[in-house]
Amino acid sequence: MNNLLNRRHFLSLSSGASLMLLGLNGHSQTTSLQKHVRCSFALGTKITFTVFHEDEKLANQAIDEALLQIDKVENVMSLYRPDSQLSQLNREGLLRKPHPLFVDTLKRAQEISALSDGAFDITVQPLWNLFRQHSIKGTIPNQDEVAKVKKRVGWQFIDIQDDLICMNKAGGQISLNGIAQGLAADVAQQALKARGIEHALIDAGELSSLGKPQNREAWKIGIQHSRKDEYLGKINLKNRCLSTSGDYQVKFSEDFRLNHLFDPRTGYSPTELSSVSVLAPSAMQADALSTALFVLGQEKAMKLMKNLPQVDAFFVNKKGHIQHTEGFGLA
């Protein structure tokens, strides 16, 4: 699954890189703060830190600590590491003495599943496996195959206790790709703040912002067009997090109708939207909600967001029509 799971794409507004600051060079525009950039790789995606701080040594120590915290998340929740607790749970159907972080993440995933009436569901991994296997062969699964696999999908099948996690459905499997990258961005931000960093942007597939870049009011971010190599709009991101889910990120059919975003209630991809970008207080929340709102469709998504403080969204439907909540803050 490697690079296929790098699902979020945020365009530079000034260069061809995946994420850059508008109008800033490699050094800050005053002598008080310096710009420090570091790239790494975890949870199936490239991770980029952009930090502004006057002390280069402290900035690098903070990034080191942030990467260490991300590695802890990956050790527990990565699908790519056979010794992770997630991989063990998927193989054996149960996990004794789970890491507290794993337990907390699963509980929060279930909360969002309940909130979204099952639109967000971490047990869709069997559907991913089915469509991915067919994709490799250049085929599409038939309705009987989908119906059979869909019986193993359902967030209620997970029994979560502090000392034991069970999959109460034979063949059930979990994917945390819709929430773990957000968690990684959150723990990284916490590590930076603990080291005294006040201004940083973390791109871990989701964007987590802290403070602002030097001589700017906010981090300026471009949102990827779902069909063209250009951006649909730009936003000023400040002290919130941004995540996008789109049908273009992993597709199983050339018309984008079949893609990695599954409606667990049907076993197929939703047909209304092309992409959803979500602003939220945490990257984990933005990450999970971008998937949930995509599956729900715009009308139900708007109703759900009325009860979610500081959450805003930007919708693009299959015809390219754009709508967004008032607080999304296009620049």
From TrEMBL:
Its cofactor is Mg(2+). Its EC number is 2.7.1.180. It comes from the Bacteria. It is an enzyme of class 2 (transferase). This is FAD:protein FMN transferase. PANTHER family: FAD:PROTEIN FMN TRANSFERASE, THIAMINE BIOSYNTHESIS LIPOPROTEIN APBE. Pfam families: ApbE. It comes from Lentisphaera profundi. GO terms for molecular function: transferase activity. It catalyses: L-threonyl-[protein] + FAD = FMN-L-threonyl-[protein] + AMP + H(+). Keywords: FAD, Flavoprotein, Magnesium, Metal-binding, Transferase. Belongs to the ApbE family.
